[in-house]
């Protein structure tokens, strides 16, 4: 089966096998990861090691915290304004698609929001430019979405926001390429695309930003509480964190983030080539310079043909190629766990399909 689903979790097969092998006996403890206490030294080790692996792989500066939280990126949509959007300030958001829209809607429930860049008028085919944002005075932070999973768009470069904290939802492209973490005050990402299974959300935050939190909010929603307890404030999602640990080791053993990035570029090239070389039989949904390396969105000339494409692709072992209901059409999600060979097989299938129906 070639898995091109947008989520959750496309895990490397080596990692899945290791989980299977260790399920009943975690590294000689005689216990399953599902049973050991989250206060045990074994779990403490996994927790600390996983934070450290992420710091090494992403080159995270020393003044940042790595947190493992629950509730998915959707909880972060609410937590970010709850922690940082205080009365009298305004939060500036970049409106690049469905996911940014959800983050905006949550922030609007908490306080004042300004949309400082938007590509709604192009139906999110392209990303809003970041270089001429009109950021209002009193802006507490600027929020953007690095990769819009549904539209299939991805920022290649970010922007220097000076003293205003830049906060990013990187749910669908974290660890798929190298980034400069110091450009951001806070990054959050549901793990279930490139990092592991659903159930754990990674937050990378500048310590100084967390020190500033003064909002009267419940402890469970307060980043600083989680940071002060090294992500052990309450029962953590131990199984999910353990799997993230294995995935990070897999990335480390497979060329690190550079290796992953090179593979991801080569994988995306294969599928975009099939689109661009098709004389219009296929066309991309996103503008070329906004195209995502993670979610390739495309279409054919008519709906009937797309239905047939999906039917045939499924018969040939490809799953998950139906576009999200918001964007329609077709989408191949090619996260870290999807191999070059699988993308090559999809490219060949697309070319063959075109030969027969073009
Ligand atoms: N942000 C982006 C970019 C996403 O792709 C998704 C889910 O696909 C979310 C946020 C929502 O994440 P969750 O389902 O973990 O709440």
UniProtKB/TrEMBL annotation:
Enzyme Commission number(s) of this protein: 2.6.1.52
Gene3D superfamilies to which the protein is assigned, alphabetical: Aspartate Aminotransferase, domain 1 (3.90.1150.10), Type I PLP-dependent aspartate aminotransferase-like (Major domain) (3.40.640.10)
Domain Aminotransferase class V: 1-346
Swiss-Prot/TrEMBL cofactor(s): pyridoxal 5'-phosphate
Reactions catalysed according to its record: O-phospho-L-serine + 2-oxoglutarate = 3-phosphooxypyruvate + L-glutamate; 4-(phosphooxy)-L-threonine + 2-oxoglutarate = (R)-3-hydroxy-2-oxo-4-phosphooxybutanoate + L-glutamate
Origin: domain of life: Bacteria
MF GO annotations: O-phospho-L-serine:2-oxoglutarate aminotransferase activity
N6-(pyridoxal phosphate)lysine modifications at: 193
Binding residues annotated for L-glutamate, in chain numbering: 39
Localization in the cell: Cytoplasm
UniProt keyword terms in alphabetical order: Amino-acid biosynthesis, Aminotransferase, Cytoplasm, Pyridoxal phosphate, Serine biosynthesis, Transferase
Amino acids binding pyridoxal 5'-phosphate: 73-74, 99, 149, 169, 192
Cofactor binding note of this UniProt entry: Binds 1 pyridoxal phosphate per subunit.
SUPFAM superfamilies: PLP-dependent transferases
Function field: Catalyzes the reversible conversion of 3-phosphohydroxypyruvate to phosphoserine and of 3-hydroxy-2-oxo-4-phosphonooxybutanoate to phosphohydroxythreonine.
UniProt record similarity statement: Belongs to the class-V pyridoxal-phosphate-dependent aminotransferase family. SerC subfamily.
NCBIfam families: PRK05355.1, serC_1
UniProt-recorded name of the protein: Phosphoserine aminotransferase
Biological source species: Paenibacillus farraposensis
Lineage, top ranks: Bacteria, Bacillati, Bacillota, Bacilli, Bacillales
């Amino acid at each position: 089966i070639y898995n091109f689903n947008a989520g959750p979790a496309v895990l490397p097969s080596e990692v899945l096998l290791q989980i299977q092998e260790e399920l009943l006996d975690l590294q000689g403890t005689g216990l399953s990861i599902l049973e050991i206490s989250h206060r045990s030294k074994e779990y403490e080790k996994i927790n600390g090691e996983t934070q450290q692996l992420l710091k090494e792989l992403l080159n995270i500066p020393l003044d940042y915290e790595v947190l493992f939280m629950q509730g998915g990126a959707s909880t972060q949509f609410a937590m970010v304004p709850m922690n940082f959007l205080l009365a009298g300030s305004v939060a500036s958001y970049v409106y690049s698609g469905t996911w940014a829209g959800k983050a905006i809607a949550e922030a609007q429930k908490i306080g004042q929001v300004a949309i400082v860049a938007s590509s709604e008028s192009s139906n999110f085919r392209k990303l809003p430019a970041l270089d001429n944002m009109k950021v209002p005075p009193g802006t507490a932070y600027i929020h953007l979405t690095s990769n819009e999973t549904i539209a299939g768009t991805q920022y290649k470069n970010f922007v220097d926001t000076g003293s205003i904290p830049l906060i990013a939802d990187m749910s669908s492209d974290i660890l798929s390429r190298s980034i400069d973490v110091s450009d951001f005050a806070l990054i959050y990402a549901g793990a279930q695309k490139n990092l592991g299974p659903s159930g754990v959300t990674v937050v990378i935050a500048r310590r100084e930003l967390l020190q500033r939190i003064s909002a009267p909010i419940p402890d469970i929603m307060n980043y600083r509480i989680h940071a002060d307890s090294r992500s052990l404030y309450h029962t953590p999602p131990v199984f999910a964190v353990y799997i993230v640990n294995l995935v990070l080791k897999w990335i480390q053993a497979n060329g690190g983030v550079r290796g992953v990035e090179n593979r991801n570029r080569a994988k995306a090239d294969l599928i975009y080539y099939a689109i661009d070389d098709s004389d219009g039989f296929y066309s991309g949904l996103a503008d070329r310079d906004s195209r995502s390396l993670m979610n390739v969105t495309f279409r054919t000339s008519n709906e009937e043909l797309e239905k047939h494409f999906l039917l045939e692709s499924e018969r040939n072992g490809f799953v998950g190629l139906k576009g999200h209901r918001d964007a329609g059409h077709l989408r191949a999600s090619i996260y870290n766990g999807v191999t070059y060979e699988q993308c090559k097989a999809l490219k060949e299938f697309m070319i063959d399909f075109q030969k027969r129906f073009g």
